[in-house]
Task: inverse folding
C-alpha cells in the first residue's frame, strides 16, 4: 500500500470496523511459536485495542516515516535486506491471518513500502477462557500475585544464573535472585502463584521458563500493557469467581506485601526494606508469621 497518512488512517479504520466482531484468537501450535518467521503483511490486522487504532492517538505518521526511511536505506545498501531486528508480535486469529499485538508502526511502514513479508513472532496471549481455566484448576484457596516485569525480572538486582546454552538463546530472561526458593516456599504454604506481564509473552514460554528453574506458576496473564479494556472487563466478569476460589491474596511488589481478604476486601500492608539481598527472606518471614497466625 503506497498511500499517505489520510488514506492509511482510513484503511486502518476500515479494518478495525470490518473485523471487530468477526475475528477471535486461535491457539498456535508449538512450531508456529518456536521460531521467528516471515509472515505476509496483508495477513496481519491492526488490533482494535491498541492505541495505534485510536483516532485521537495514532497512527503516528512521523514514526511510520522513520521506519519507511530505514526500509529505503537498507534496500539501497543490501540485495536482500533483513528489515527490523525486532520482530513484530502477532496472535493467530480465526477465520484467517494474525492480529498485531506489538509493532503496528513497523507493519504500517512495510505496507507503505510494498514489503510483502516481515519478521514476526507468533505468541498466545492470555484470554478470558484461559483465566477461567486457571481458576477452575486452582489447587489452593490462597494465591500470590507478582508483576513479572517489575518484580520477577527486575533489572539491576542480583539475578539467578542464566539457563545453560542453548536454552539461553530462547529463554533470555533473567530471574531475580531468590525467586525459585520463594516460590517453592509459598507452594509448601498452600499458595497458588499468579504472574502478570504487560509484554506479549506466550503463556507456554513463561510456564516452561519457570519449570526449567525447578518451580511452577499457576496463573499467567500476559499482554496487560495495551489491553486495559479487555482486562478491566475480564476482571469484572471474573471477580466473583476469583473471590469464591481464593479466600486470600498476597500481592508482592518491591517494597511491600499486601495481604487482601477476597470477600471483605480488608487488607494489611507489610513493608519491605527493598534490600535485594534480603527481599525474598523478608517475604518468607512475613508469610511464615501469617501462617502461624492463621493456624
Result:
Amino acid at each position: 500500500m503506497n498511500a499517505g497518512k489520510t488514506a492509511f488512517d482510513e484503511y486502518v479504520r476500515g479494518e478495525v470496523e470490518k473485523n471487530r466482531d468477526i475475528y477471535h484468537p486461535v491457539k498456535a501450535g508449538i512450531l508456529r511459536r518456536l521460531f521467528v518467521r516471515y509472515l505476509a503483511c496483508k495477513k496481519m490486522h491492526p488490533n482494535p485495542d491498541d492505541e495505534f487504532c485510536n483516532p485521537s492517538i495514532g497512527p503516528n505518521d512521523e514514526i511510520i516515516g522513520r521506519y519507511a526511511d530505514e526500509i529505503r536505506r537498507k534496500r539501497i545498501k543490501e540485495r536482500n535486506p533483513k528489515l527490523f531486528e525486532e520482530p513484530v508480535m502477532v496472535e493467530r486469529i480465526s477465520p484467517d491471518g494474525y492480529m498485531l499485538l506489538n509493532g503496528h508502526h513497523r507493519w504500517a511502514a512495510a505496507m507503505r513500502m510494498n514489503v510483502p513479508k516481515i519478521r514476526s513472532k507468533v505468541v498466545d496471549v492470555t484470554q478470558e477462557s484461559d483465566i477461567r481455566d486457571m481458576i477452575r484448576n486452582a489447587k489452593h484457596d490462597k494465591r500470590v500475585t507478582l508483576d513479572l516485569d517489575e518484580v520477577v525480572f527486575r533489572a539491576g538486582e542480583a539475578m539467578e544464573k542464566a539457563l545453560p546454552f542453548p536454552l539461553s538463546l530462547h529463554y533470555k530472561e533473567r530471574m531475580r535472585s531468590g525467586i525459585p526458593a520463594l516460590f517453592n516456599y509459598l507452594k509448601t504454604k498452600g499458595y497458588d502463584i499468579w504472574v502478570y506481564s504487560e509484554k506479549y509473552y506466550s503463556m507456554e514460554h513463561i510456564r516452561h521458563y519457570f519449570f526449567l528453574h525447578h518451580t511452577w506458576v499457576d496463573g499467567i496473564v500476559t499482554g496487560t500493557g495495551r489491553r486495559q479494556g479487555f482486562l478491566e472487563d475480564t476482571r469484572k466478569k471474573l471477580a466473583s469467581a476469583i473471590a469464591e476460589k481464593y479466600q486470600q491474596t498476597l500481592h508482592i511488589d518491591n517494597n511491600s506485601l499486601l495481604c487482601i481478604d477476597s470477600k471483605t476486601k480488608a487488607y494489611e500492608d507489610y513493608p519491605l526494606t527493598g534490600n535485594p539481598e534480603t527481599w525474598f527472606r523478608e517475604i518468607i518471614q512475613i508469610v511464615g508469621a501469617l501462617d502461624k497466625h492463621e493456624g
Observations:
- The chain has two domains: 5-122, 128-294.
- The mean pLDDT is 87.
- The longest helix spans residues 228-245.
